Amino acid sequence: MQVKIENQNLGQAISLLFNLSLKGKQSRHRSKFIKALEEKLKDFAEQEQELLKEHCYLDEEDKPRTIENGTKWDIKDLDAFSKDRTDLYEEERVFEGGDAQGMLKTVKDVLLNCDKEFSGQEAVIYDYLCEQFEGDGE
After folding, report:
1. What average pLDDT score do residues 88-115 get?
2. In terms of Cα–Cα distance, which of 83, 23, 28, 24 is closest to 51?
3. How far apart are CA 123 and CA 2, in angstroms?
4. Is the CA virtual torsion 27, 20, 13, 44 positive or negative?
5. Mean pLDDT within 79-108
6. Contact predicate 64/56, CB 8 Å
7. 32, 22 contact by CB (below 8 A)
8. Backbone phi, then psi, for 54, in 5-degree steps?
């Protein structure tokens, strides 16, 4: 089993899964999956900082410089930054097989058989996650 989740959806996926009321094996596997998502989210945040360093003018501490009272990044080439940022946000993180096999199957079952009502952005991320798990080929 393989599941792919875009960087831009990692945080919302963690939040949705965290707020599901589960017990036993489902709860344990959900917690393991959240930990895996959090590791990928941390890596994504580090890559985002590197991207800012690459595309922004740096201050005296070699950190990305801001303008307009700290509300905007001081970007050298906005078009290049926007393209690289979009690529990073849409990059997929892969979760698959091995030790994760049972965990992924349990989380898939939890999502596809969930009877909780979702609305707004939570409904959007729920639908996205179901599509990712349904599209795993199993």
Report:
1. 88
2. 83
3. 22
4. negative
5. 90
6. yes
7. no
8. -70, -35
